[in-house]
Amino acid sequence: MGRKLPYRLKVIGQPVPELSWYLDDENIDNNEDVVITYDRQTGFCKLIFVDIMPEDAGIYTCIASNPVGEAKTECELKVRPAVVTTDITQLTSAKPGETENVQTSTIVIQQTPSK
């Protein structure tokens, strides 16, 4: 989570197709959480997830259409909640001739997906 992830594909068609992107049947062409690039000359397209979060999970569909017809491709994005582990070390002050006691504990912070 919180990482950038690109999804790449190549679109071929004459005339050059128009593209529309969907997340679970909802259009995301103007969604600020993703960046969509499409080079109409090469046909290469990228869907870039700027900051992946659990709510970004789902079925992504790209529909390419032109006057000749329509084609689509789908992929499923699964997002696992992040598990952050922090080690905390506690030192006690030792007097001369004594050893220091070191206690280590682990704290696990897990983000649960939004509903």
UniProtKB/TrEMBL annotation:
Coiled coil: none annotated. Residues 94-115 are annotated as: Disordered. Residues 1-80 form the Ig-like domain. InterPro entries: Ig-like_dom, Ig-like_dom_sf, Ig-like_fold, Ig_I-set. Residues 100-115 have a biased composition (Polar residues). It comes from the Eukaryota. PANTHER family: IMMUNOGLOBULIN. This is CCDC141. It comes from Bugula neritina. The lineage of its organism: Eukaryota, Metazoa, Spiralia, Lophotrochozoa, Bryozoa.
